Amino acid sequence: MGDRDDRNAIGRRVQRLRAERGMTQRQLAEPAYTPAYISTLEAGRVRPSDEAVRHLAERLGVGYEELATGRPARLATDLRLRLTEARRTLATEGAEQAAGQYTVLLAEAEAHELAEERAAALLGLGECAVETGELAAGRQYFERAEQCLVEADAPLPARVPAVRGRALAHYLAGELRYAVYLLESTLDELNRGGLHDPDALLLLYASAIGPYMDMGAHARAAQAAELALSLAPSAGDPALVARMHRSVARTLLAEGRLAEADASLAKAAELYRTLQLRTELANCHWMRGYVCAQNGELPRAEAEMREALGMLSVTRAALYSSQVAVELADVLHRRGKSEEAAELLHDVLDDLSSERGAVHSAGAHRLLGIIAEDARDTEAAEEHYVRALSLLERAGAAGDLADLCRLLGDLLRRTGRVEAALDAYRTGLGHRTAPGTTTLGPAPAQPPL
């Protein structure tokens, strides 16, 4: 039961505020109520109506919310301002600093039972954890944020960032199919239900690109990229506009104009979300680069992937940067720049592991194996292939596994180990033909663009 429904709490609050102001019960009651009613209310024997609370709040010189709940009128607005500051920090400075801000804000939101602000702080902590590679912790934060919003009866578009966060954490941990399930089922619910929220749809489509690619669903990944780019919001310099809205909100808050301050904060928060979408839009450039590479347009592919890498470097998204770097290295190798590619891959492996980017770690080892084979270093090539195979088996990336088994089999056959080569080929065929590994089922419903 909340404070608004607790007549004892409201009664004690009325009595305390009246005493602080030196008012009698008659002065507080008139002209709409009687001193006896105030006495009964302060004793906790009656629950005041909304009209009565508004009358008493006006007489006591406080806001309706403060009298009804015990929370200062500007508390929620002040928390939203600081949440916007934390989002700015995450978008422009880095995850570790932002996490400290979000931790403090979460404690305050929980202490004052502010559900939406609590969910926003949990979501921010989840985003920080994912960017620093703490995937299990990030997933837990996203789950708590989603549950908090469900309990507050928030609409589905408001819950999308938490759902997307969960999917991303599963994807980066190598759980590709579950990540796709989360994203596609939410897209279906939005589109079939007519909930055409461009920001929510952009976030979901862009987030699906990585899992689609790793599962071999290239056509679906290309479609998701084009839909995401068509939905992308346009803003000249969102950082400058957001800064302006934050400054305006501070002024309005100081003047007690809370509703207007909230409106400015909402605009600032939306722009900082746009800034954070650099990561998602970078994925779209990466996808375009991949398509160009598949079509043999290697210079354009390199340009698109360097664009993606540059966008990710601005947001200090080290894990995502490493993933795109693997794809860029493949293009560099195909363009005859194998030394540059190998150097890039060795740097990448310092940031990836079986728990953090397993598929792309395997991709780095696979490409290093190919480069080693080109240099006739078969021992190093085999070592890289075996490491990649172990990583891909854990992630369940069937398409990549089949291709890697072919590469390993070819290497073993060329070095005279025919039986071992046959085993590798059989393993690859098993992954290629395993039920359910080459289909994702029907695509999610599309938005009415």
From TrEMBL:
<dbReference type="Pfam" id="PF01381">
    <property type="entry name" value="HTH_3"/>
</dbReference>
<dbReference type="InterPro" id="IPR019734">
    <property type="entry name" value="TPR_rpt"/>
</dbReference>
<dbReference type="InterPro" id="IPR010982">
    <property type="entry name" value="Lambda_DNA-bd_dom_sf"/>
</dbReference>
<dbReference type="InterPro" id="IPR001387">
    <property type="entry name" value="Cro/C1-type_HTH"/>
</dbReference>
<feature type="domain" description="HTH cro/C1-type">
    <location>
        <begin position="14"/>
        <end position="67"/>
    </location>
</feature>
<dbReference type="InterPro" id="IPR011990">
    <property type="entry name" value="TPR-like_helical_dom_sf"/>
</dbReference>
<protein>
    <submittedName>
        <fullName>Tetratricopeptide repeat protein</fullName>
    </submittedName>
</protein>
<feature type="region of interest" description="Disordered">
    <location>
        <begin position="429"/>
        <end position="449"/>
    </location>
</feature>
<feature type="compositionally biased region" description="Low complexity">
    <location>
        <begin position="433"/>
        <end position="443"/>
    </location>
</feature>
